[in-house]
Amino acid sequence: MKTTSILFLLAGLVLAYFLFSMYFNNTGNGDTQDAHFEPTSTIATEEPNENSHYTFLKDCRPTSTTGQIINHKHYSLSYYEKHEQAEWVAYELTAASLRIPNVKRSNDFRPDPAIRTGSASRWDYKGSGYDRGHMVPAADMAFSEEAMRQTFYMSNMSPQVRGFNQGIWRELEENVRDWAWKNKTLYVVSGVIFDNPTRRPIGKNKVTVPPYYYKALLDLKKPEQKGIAFIIPNEVQTKHLYDFATSIDELENRTGIDFFKALPNNQEAKLESTFDIKQWKVSDKRYQLRLNKWNIK
């Protein structure tokens, strides 16, 4: 009886040591929720999990022309030090997150601690005449205080003409949320095009005023998978939003960025080469609001 007990005890100690070793080896890398994700080779083409805000970061991160990619918990960005702003931000927008009651807007503009070269300052914009335009809209991240606060990093800001920011850019952002409601999940990339900037940089850090902004949108929900892009000049607009619609391929030609490189080649070609404007219905009421109210001169 005594010998049997000793054998059981030794077996238990061996098992405990084995389990402890496995645990130590798997958790010793110090990974956190804000760790830098590496993209996988393919993206799931079934309807994404509405409760996940990480699918885009892991699978669909665009290419970077700057080499400085930052992954915050709910969105990624590629920081362009020369211009002191992100060249793009990327995130997943879901109907599930939009259903959550909104937290209070923080308005806590501050430098991004993750930018190793240092981001722009809120004071760069003071007295410049330009809005601190969000690339990831605060309203898209209103499902949690943490997500909301991170949209106020200065790395997520870009100098926008006020009538653009509060006009057609606002209209596009609100339509994107409508499309996320309808399609359950959208992959969103917002960014800037720096071709031939004509306005003087602003602030001590010489923040570039981009001449163009864009959004690239991808819906992978079957059976109506689709993609579209918008390229809009940084100025007050009276034209219809559809006038600025284009294919993702055309946007890639303008920027040199591969936006959805994790897609299988045949699917990427299909979704990025064409777009059907009828699949992206916009609000005519919102368009009239822009013309009559939002286009601040």
Could you give the order of strands across the largest sheet? 1-2-3-6-7-8-9
- Poorly predicted runs of 5 or more residues: 14-54
Tell me the radius of gyration.
23 Å
Provide mean pLDDT, rounded: 84
Sheet with the most strands, sense and barrel status: 7 strands, antiparallel
Q: What is the CATH class of the largest domain?
A: Alpha Beta
In N-to-C order, the SSE pattern is HHEEEHEHEHHEEEEHHH
CATH homologous superfamily identity of the largest domain: Extracellular Endonuclease, subunit A
Q: Would you identify the CATH architecture of the largest domain?
A: 3-Layer(aba) Sandwich
Structural class: alpha+beta
Q: Could you please say which CATH topology of the largest domain applies here? A: Extracellular Endonuclease, Chain A
Supply the number of helical segments: 9
Portion in strands: 15-25%
The number of distinct structural domains comes to 2
Euclidean distance between termini CA atoms:
92 Å
Helix fraction bin: 25-40%
* Strand segment count: 9
Can you tell me the overall shape? globular
